[in-house]
Amino acid sequence: MIQGVQIDLISAERLDKMTMMEKIRLILDDVMEGNIVVLEKGLAPEEQSKLIELTMREITPDGFAGIEMETYPAKEKPGFLDRLLGKTAQARLTVIGPADQMKTIKKEKDFITAWVSSR
Amino acid sequence: MDFLFRARKKISKFLKAFFSKRQSRIGIYGPPNAGKTTLANRIVRDWTGDALGPVSEVPHETRRARRKEGIVITGNNGGSITIDIVDTPGVTTKIDYKEFLEYGLEKDEAVKRAREATEGVAEAMHWLREDINGVIYMLDSTLDPFLQVNIMMVGIIESRSLPVIIVANKIDLPDAAPQRIKSAFPQHPVISISGLEGSNVEELYEKMVEYFG
Ligand SMILES: Nc1nc2c(ncn2[C@@H]2O[C@H](COP(=O)(O)OP(=O)(O)O)[C@@H](O)[C@H]2O)c(=O)[nH]1
Ligand SMILES: [Mg+2]
User: So where are chain A's domains?
Assistant: First the structure.
C-alpha cells in the first residue's frame, strides 16, 4: 500500500464544470502539498501547456521541484492508423504527482494500474 | 482596369512577402540534450555565418529562448524561405537544482541555473501558444521516443495546428534507432540527421523550405 501519500480523485463531472485556470490551480495546489491527483478525464493540450508553464513558475530550491504526469489512454495505446490520422486517444485517467515523490509512485505503479483497470 | 489589376497584384505580393516574413518563426523544441542548440547553431552558421549559443552536455545549458532573425534558406529548386529561428530550453515538467551539483557546480550557481531554466521553459511554453508558426521537434534517436513529455508536446503542437518536422538526431551514434521515431510519429515528416557531424542536414533544409514556406 502507499503510505503517507494522499491520492485525490477528481471526477470528470467536476472537471467539466471548471475553467482551465480553476483546474490548473486545483491540481498545482494539491500536488504542491505533496498529494497525488488523479483526474478522471485527461487535460486538453492547451491545459497541459499552461500547466507546464505554471509548474515552472512554482518551482523553488529545496521546495517544490515540479510534477510528473502519467496518462492512461482509453483502451490501449493508439494504433498506427490512429496516430497517422492524428488521433491521440482521449485519455481516461491522468495521474499527476510531485516529481520528488514519483519514485514512490513508480514503485506503486502496479497498484495504480490495477486500480485504473478495475474501474 | 488592367492597371488596377496589376497594381493590386503587386500590392498583394508585397503584403504576402511582408507577412510571410513575420509569420515564419520556427521554434526548435524537444527534451533537454536532444541537440537543439547544436542544430540551431548549424542552421545559423550555414546560412548566415554567425553562431547562436553555447552547446553543453550539462542539461539546460540553454536557459532562455534565443532567437536569430531573418535567416534565408534556399532549396534545390530555387525556392526559399525567410525564417526567425528560436532555440528553446528543453521542455520538462520538473527541475531540481541538485541535478546540476552532479556536474560539479557550486550550490549558488546550480540554484541560479535551475531558476533560469524554469523561467526559460515557462517562456518557451508561452511562446508556443503565442508566437511560433512552425516547429522542429528534436529527438535523440538513441532514446525511447515514447516519453510522456514528447507525446504531450507533440499533442500541444498539433492542437495549435502548427506544421512540425520531427528530427531524429544523433544518427552518427551506433545505437541510434531513427525508425523507432518514425513509427512513433507517422503523421509528421521525420528527418534523420547528425546535427553534430552535419550528415543529412540538406534533406532537413529541403523539407523546411517545402513545409514552412
Ligand atoms: N553524437 C552526437 N552528439 C550530438 C549531436 N547533436 C548534439 N550532440 C551532443 O549532445 C549534447 C547536447 O547538445 P545540445 O545542442 O546542447 O542539446 P540541447 O540541450 O537540445 O540544446 C552535446 O554534448 C552535443 O555535442 C549529434 O548529432 N550526434
Ligand atoms: Mg540547448
Answer: 7-116
